[in-house]
Amino acid sequence: MESTISVKGLSVSYDRKRVLTNIYLDIEPGLIYGLIGPNGAGKSTLFKAILGLIDTNSGKIFIEGKSIEAERKRVVYVPQRDDVDWTFPATVYDIVLMGRYPHKKMFQRMDDSDREIALQAMRDLGIEKLKDRQIGELSGGQQQRVFIARAMAQEAEIFLLDEPFVGVDVTTEEKIIESLKRLAAEGKTLLVVHHDLATVNEYFDKVILLNQRLIAYGDTEETFSEENIAKAYRSQLPILHKTGLI
Fold it and tell me: Alpha-carbon distance 185 to 169, whole Å?
């Protein structure tokens, strides 16, 4: 199967400190990948590199054999909730409709087709009734669903989601993973930064264990082993045992 994202020998440094070292990955369509590792492992840096937002020391990243500049419309990023300005004066509908902008020319207006696509994304995530609410008035779980709906409205092929389950209730988490699995079934590529080790086996087809270098990646059942977790988390391993996460 042809990869949608190919990472070839990626290395990244910040202020002369190496954050990622010699990363090689091939990400296939139709699957949900869990990107797993401790704080400071370079997970968000990997996303920024894929999106072309940071300089790299070495290596190449291809989106279906092309540069991110050529394929940007096909890639969508869902940030952590903490990275969003929730005082921005916009309604749920306004935010989700923004997902259609990559499909419009400058000064071209939204049409009925765009509006229907946005509404369908809201229906899929159970937030259609919230469409006229200001985003700052929503709960954490509702806010998260709004930004995933915006990503779905973009009709991208590749989804990069940075900890989409943080701060959401169980019902919202189930709704989100249900939507992600539906997107994967449609042939989309999904790469998800995730910290809850207890749900990794349930949520992800494949995992990428990262701690500044690539520890392991492959099918979840085989790759998400205690041995690989220990290599990835190193000094944090006693805490994981104490909390019952492994």
Answer: 24
- Cβ contact 96:146 at 8 Å: yes
Domain that holds residue 211: 5-243
Ordered strands of the 158-162 beta sheet: 75-78, 158-162, 189-193, 32-36, 206-211, 213-219
**pTM higher than 0.85:** yes
The 3-class SS string of the chain reads CCCCEEEEEEEEEECCEEEEEEEEEEECCCCEEEEECCCCCCHHHHHHHHCCCCCCCEEEEEECCECHHHHHHHEEEECCHHHCCCCCCCEHHHHHHHHHHHHCCCCCCCCHHHHHHHHHHHHHCCCHHHCCCEHHHCCHHHHHHHHHHHHHHCCCCEEEEECCCCCCCHHHHHHHHHHHHHHHHCCCEEEEECCCHHHHHHHCCEEEEEECEEEEEEEHHHHCCHHHHHHHHHHHHHHHHHHCCC
In the chain, pLDDT over 70 holds for what percent of residues? 93
Please list, in sequence order, all residues whose beta carbon lies within 8 angstroms of the beta carbon of residue 16, skipping any fewer than 6 positions away: none
Whether 79 shows a pLDDT value over 90: the answer reads no
**What total number of domains does the chain contain?**
1
CATH number at residue 113: 3.40.50.300
Instruction: Give residue 241's pLDDT.
Output: 54
